[in-house]
Amino acid sequence: MNIGLKIKSLRREQNVTQEKLADYLHISYQAVSKWENETASPDISLIVPLANFFGVTTDYLLDNTSNENYAEIEAINDKIASLRNIGKTTEAIKLLSDSLLIYPKEFRFMYLLANMLSGYHSTPEQEKLAKLEKYDEQAVKLCEKILEDCSDEEIRNSAKILLCYQYPKVGKRDKAIELAKKMPSLYATGSLLLASIYDGEEKIKQRQENLKDYLTQSALELLWSISNQNLGNELSNEEKIVYLKDAITIMNTLFYDGNFLFEHIRMFEIYIRLSRLMAETDNLPECLECLKSAKFHALLYDQLPEGDIPYTSRYINRLSFNRKSILTNSENSAITNFKETLKNKCFDKYRDNVEFLDLL
């Protein structure tokens, strides 16, 4: 891929104008236009500043892959994204595996494959196949290969993060701890630093993204905390209920206007877990209310339209959501998952209840 096309691709990915890039490099925007139209190339003295601006390596900018290969690689990448968007993970894994035989140094594919192998457990069938084919071990090997051979810092960092999650799964918890300790702290993340560096509208948008990420992650941490792998064995059911109600409070504070968009699925997950706890503590009224709320959020999530949809909460009104950004390992809709959840044994005692039957 020609360096001009790489600059054009990076600029568009990062929502940077030709004028802004030109100002950074102290050149005219017409010069940038010529690079991108392949009628000129940047002076060698600009390669390092260009790499720094886009957060890539000079090797990446100077590595010339043929235009034909670039077009084919991008077409494969688009196909993979489409498959993941509709939950066809098995097909995406097959396509990535085949593509790596043709492009063994395409590290984006390598990381995507590792990422999908690591998350292949949405159904009992997937879990069985993942164990049989040793997907966790494969994911680790792919990430380690990236760290050995790849010079793209963004891909390397993604591989390091994935290894922190994968190493414990393959009995290498000490390696995960060692690697995690070398990662940036919460206060040194790119998102937090950008919020300090940006000006004007960019600063506002970045701070809103950070607020959304921190609060939704806090709610999820409360949800995950009650699992048996964390505090589940130490907490009573009553204490777990408090955790989940606090998670709902956090989400309702951020999305006070009810426009949850993608986070409808998070609310669905929280209410489902809470409904099971209510059933286990024989609290039928609250169990039914939680199930109704879970169904409500599942339906709204499934009905989200295509295209960019703006959030309307005053706290995040510069942000939007697009269904195409969803990457899932399941082909099931949220409402299908809701109906599957109702088959759980904890709800057996309510199967003759009229309100419960209405949920089916």
From TrEMBL:
Keywords: DNA-binding. GO terms for molecular function: DNA binding. Residues 7-61 form the HTH cro/C1-type domain. It comes from the Bacteria. This is Transcription regulator Cro-CI family protein. It comes from Haloplasma contractile SSD-17B.
